[in-house]
Amino acid sequence: MTTIAVYPGSFDPITNGHLDVIYRAATMFDRVVVAVAQNVEKVPLFSAPDRVALARAAVQGHPNVTVDEFDGLLVRYARRIGARVLVRGLRAVSDFEYEFQMALVNRRLDRHIETIFLMPKEEYIFLSSRTVKEVAALGGDVSGFVPSVVERALRRKLGVNGTQRRRSKRLA
Ligand code: PNS
Q1: pTM score, two decimals?
Q2: How far is CA 98 from CA 51, 74, 90, 141, 162, in A?
Q3: pLDDT tens, position by position, 42-82
Q4: Residue among 10, 18, 31, 51 flagged as catalytic
Q5: pLDDT given for residue 92 in this prediction
């Protein structure tokens, strides 16, 4: 029987921390579906199609990883594609309460679907899409935080270039 795991999230945008979790999951399950939530609570920087495209470009070359988007209840989506495992990354204790609550709600909604937590590499523990966007918006270097395709997209989206910004500051 093929085991399918869903790794859901906003992915606004996908980071190296997300990729680390995806590749760990890919060694454990036959298929990993990165499920990009269409509707997210906060206003996203990238549209859903852009978040999907960036995630797709980032996981390219990994045969058992695919990217999809979903709307509505996560457990309903998981059931529809035949997945019984939800994967979430756990970085620090501060993540725990939110993740715990979400896992329990999902289990209450469907007791056949289990959530498992994977820890990313220590160097990504501090990383989040929110901090990446903030650093990029302020002209900081995010090359170590996101794949290059995302770095370029951030630059296009935010219209800032770290080098240019630093140079113009020096000239001011
Ligand atoms: O990357 P995020 O923002 O932490 O991801 C959160 C996400 C999208 C996985 C979560 O909000 C979600 O599952 N949304 C779908 C709606 C749902 O099923 N809600 C019930 C579980 S709390």
Answers
A1: 0.92
A2: 23, 15, 10, 29, 33
A3: 899 999 999 999 999 999 999 999 999 999 999 999 999 99
A4: 18
A5: 86
85: which strand partners? Answer: 5, 114
Which atom of ligand 1 approaches the CA of 88 most closely? 9
| Look-up of token digits 């709600």 | 105
How many H-runs (helices) and E-runs (strands) does the chain carry?
7, 5
Residue minimizing CA distance to atom 7 of ligand 1? 9
Is 18 tagged catalytic? yes
Q: What's the chain's length in residues?
A: 172
Go through the domains of the chain in sequence order and give each one's CATH number.
4-125 (3.40.50.620)
Looking at the predicted structure, is the pLDDT value of residue 162 above 50?
A: no
A 10 A CB-CB count for 131 gives 14
